[in-house]
Amino acid sequence: MFEDFQFSTILVATIRSAPILLFAAFAGVFAERSGIIDLALEGKMLASAFVAAACTYAFQNPYLGVAAGILVSCCIVLLQGYVAINQKGNQLVFGIAINIAMSGLTFVLAQYFFQLGGRSPDLGAARFAVFNFPFADWWSTIPALNWLLGKFLGGHTILVYLAFALIPFLHWLMNHSRFGLRLRAVGENPHAADAAGINVAQTRYLALLCGGVLCSLSGAYLAIVQSGFFLRDMSAGNGFLALTAMVFGNWRPIQTALGCLMFGFFAALQIQMEGVAFPIVGQIPGSLIQMLPFVVTVIVLAGVMAKSVAPKALGVPFVKSR
């Protein structure tokens, strides 16, 4: 019924789904502000999701699962850096290759280890615990406070709070720190940065490693927190939505976060709309509802791409002047 369509539920779902996009989009910001096109977000998310789920199930410890996901994502990133920085390879082709390879490899490994059709077992109690505000006996009796402290601000895992805490931190890091200044210089004019004594290759490797850690947190959140298991291609295009949010945010952390929240809102709206009978139009077919986030993506790209200004050296291999 239409009465079941609650805006408050959509807001809570937006908060809970946003970290997937936030971590991945921030990873893209690191890579692309240094001049490296990062189309491999989807593949790194899948790889870290599988490894995080498998290690969490094996050791019954989500923190070990996250650490293992970080390790495998950083290994992919080092390979990505070797191809893009050392070998001056095509960054677009390599990104697509990683996505295709991880889509198949994670399924094969999951089937080999667990024999569940490419799915991992349920993680059950091994998942992250949620944080609850104190004095719940008092504020839970007040509906507004119960929603605010129990669902909107509270009741989330540590990765949710980390994702939102990164927004102001990365804004400061990119705009007010020495590392951020060097990162932006390398992405805008690597030859001038090199003339100023900045090691371009090293800076790009550091940016990719930072992005690898963040992207692994996105995959770990997807497997350990949101789903509680690994499933084939469970990233479901979120890596590309994160790239869209990054373009929407003009490669800046705060604006990128707003783009992630917008896509998270429409994803939550899509889930809330399924099975709901609206006045006049009635119940909307599920296939049309599932298109909603991607329709929004196309609209955003059509309206924002012309106004977005990418780093000038994005995708251009750096050849040191002699």
Class, according to the CATH hierarchy?
Mainly Alpha
Number of domains: 1
Q: Residue-averaged pLDDT, rounded?
A: 87
Name the beta content range. Answer: under 5%
> What is the SS-derived class?
mainly alpha
- Which value, in Å, is the CA radius of gyration? 21 Å
Oligomerization state of this entry? single chain
| Spatial arrangement of strands, main beta sheet | 1-2
Question: In whole angstroms, how far apart are the ends?
Answer: 70 Å
Uncertain stretches of 5 or more adjacent residues: none
CATH architecture: Orthogonal Bundle
Tally of alpha and pi helices = 14
Question: How helix-rich are the residues, as a percent range?
Answer: 55-70%
Fold-level CATH name: ABC transporter involved in vitamin B12 uptake, BtuC
Main beta sheet: strand number and arrangement? 2 strands, antiparallel
Q: Let me know the number of strands.
A: 2
| N-to-C order of helices and strands | HHHHHHHHHHHHEEHH
Organism: Undibacterium fentianense
GO molecular function: transmembrane transporter activity
InterPro entries: ABC_transp_permease (IPR001851)
Protein name: ABC transporter permease
